[in-house]
Specification:
This protein has 8 helices and 11 strands. The strands form 3 sheets. It has a 7-stranded parallel β-sheet with strand order 1-2-3-4-7-8-9. Strands 5-6 form a two-stranded antiparallel ribbon. With about 260 residues, the chain is of the alpha/beta class.
Amino acid sequence: MKVDLHNHTVLCNHATGTVAEYVEAAISCKIEYFGFSDHAPMHYDPKYRMSFEQMDLYELWVKEAGEKYTDQITVLLGYEVDYLPGYMDDAVLNRPCDYLIGSVHFIDDWGFDNPEFIGRYEGLDIDEIYRRYFSLIEAMAKSGKFDIVGHLDLLKVFKFLPTKDIRILAQGALKAIKKANMSIEINMAGYRKPIAEAYPSPVLLETIAELEIPITFGSDAHRSDQIGLFSDEIEAMARSVGYDKCALYRARDREMIKF
């Protein structure tokens, strides 16, 4: 795997290992472009993200790693930003970096991918929850503030699946992503969760390919030994629907490279 743009650091408070350990693991996996995109700060849910005061330290760590390993790998700087209306901060959105991943982890005040709150699924209309989730993805794309869509169908993480066709539920979001000229990551983390498949699902990826939306790749690693896991599977998945190039970002500029 040449490109891996979604990875974390201990600053998010739920990852382990040093920046150097992550980069060395990426080198051993023959990754050529490795991006850190740790959880950006916001004035909500602070225990699962870096603080605003830690942004300089985070960027220093990534810069130093890029310099130390410059002959072996290209290290890129990103942020994973929660799309949560009323809580996003220009101090993050206007920060100079290589790319911003826009992700939805919350529906109102519900962190739906957090095992602590899995009980909230009981008694809900699952199709309506999916509609609300994808409407947030759509609004995130329409905001024009992000480069990459993080783990597109994250809501499936605990195997609570819609009864309606996911392609129909996601239709408005995908059209908005296409119009916004964003990329969608194929994220390996789903293989490590109860759903046991990548984000997005193969059936959604078929629709993404039909719309000619660019893709990229992310381990979403929270430990160095998660880097590159299932990379063969997600590359094969991408090729099966016709992709042979993926997106890479530098200074918010996209280029497409062969993988």
